[in-house]
Amino acid sequence: MFKSGDKIGVPCQVKPGPFEGEQLISFDTLNGPISGFVLNSEIMERGAKYYVRAVIDSINDDVLTVWVNGSFFNTNGVATISPETALAA
């Protein structure tokens, strides 16, 4: 289904950021929640749900390692997620 290099959407919660043009997001990973700031252009809205854009780095044992462009509190933007939560973008 997915392969390295694919662009996907990761479900996230969105709140206003401190600066114009950015949002505070949080999303669940297999290692716990991640929070940080991303530009508005990195967020997609589908219906009433929000997704942050990500690029798949690798796939191992039904685990996607993805990179999200932004400034995060507890990671450099690398996260592991379940493929079931990803949205093909």
- How many angstroms separate the termini? 13 Å
The pLDDT mean sits at: 95
Radius of gyration: 12 Å
- Globally, the shape reads globular
Taking pLDDT < 50 over at least 5 consecutive residues as the criterion, the unreliable ranges are: none
Name the helicity range.
under 10%
The biggest sheet amounts to: 9 strands, antiparallel
List SSEs in N-to-C order: EEEEEEEEE
Structural topology:
Elements: E1 7-16, E2 22-29, E3 32-39, E4 43-46, E5 49-60, E6 63-67, E7 71-72, E8 78-81, E9 87-88
Structure description:
The protein has 89 residues and is an all-beta fold. It has one domain (7-88). 0% of the residues lie in helices and 62% in strands. Strands 1, 2, 3, 4, 5, 6, 7, 8 and 9 form a nine-stranded antiparallel β-sheet that branches.
Summarize the structure in short:
The chain is mainly β and 89 residues long.
Keywords:
mainly beta, globular, nine-stranded antiparallel β-sheet
